[in-house]
Specification:
Low-confidence stretches: none
CATH topology of the largest domain: Rossmann fold
CATH architecture of the largest domain: 3-Layer(aba) Sandwich
Largest sheet: 7 strands, mixed
Order of helices and strands: HHHHHEEHEHEHEEHHEHEEH
Helix content: 25-40%
Strand content: 5-15%
Number of strands: 9
Distance between the termini: 64 Å
Number of helices: 12
Mean pLDDT: 92
Radius of gyration: 22 Å
Amino acid sequence: MNPQPTAVSTLTLNDEQLTLELITLRDYLRWAASEFHISRLHFGHGTASAWDEAVALVLGGLHLPWDVDPAVLDARLLEPERKRLVELVRKRIETRRPLPYLLGEAFFAGYPFVVDERVLIPRSPIAELIEHGFAAWFPAQPPDRILDIGTGSGCIGIASALYLPTAEVDLVDIGAEALEVAKANITLHDVGLRVRAVLSDLFEGVAGQRYDLIVANPPYVNARDLATMPAEFSHEPALALGAGNDGLDVVRRLLREAREYLEDDGVLIVEVGNSDRQLEATFPEVPFLWLEFERGGHGVFVLTAGELDEYAHHFI
């Protein structure tokens, strides 16, 4: 059997050659998908394949919506548009920067958010809970007060405010630079009357406050995984990823301290990702409720205020 020929990237051509050969939107979709496949990029910041990444780059780079009429596929692009797409593809491959950083925008729970290297790229499965208004735990009345811990871009808290128009939301983060991005998104979505950004190491900046719902997406990557993550993750702030040898440094504090800030009928929702097994092994007696998601994702647990009371002695 003859070996398959090795695929050769066309990025060896200069930009002028590429923009002369590639004319339509369809041309750029096909070309970008091929280049991404050849380059063996990592996809995990909003897309799952080379094709999905190509669609996101081309539509984002041309400021077109996701549901654009397919008739535009054969539209001829202007020279500045063609040059921009070639530049974006080059940067994505050569720098390994995640696409949302190149575009300056990511979508979460159906809404756009400003993002850059000061914050993690929004990708939490908690988006599904937000879209349903956390109705599984608040079937009669939505939560009045919500705390978003480790907010980064503010996507979880701001999206919650957008889906729950009566809720007041506090966004907390230990990083002052991250909060600048969160504030930009508060302005973008015009929710400043109900959403505030607070510089805080977990609960320190909201002392004395009580919430119906606390949602946390803290750092949870263990030291081994952090050292072996694909190059794309090196562009995200390490402070928002790493959490000690077992990935639970911040989660332990959350479990110890959260009850003081929850109403008696309140709920704590925390994402721990791949540290879920380590968390169960560390606290085997605690009945973590692990959620399942229609669109994929894992490692999100729920505990009620009552359960935090009952098992408080395990968290000391």
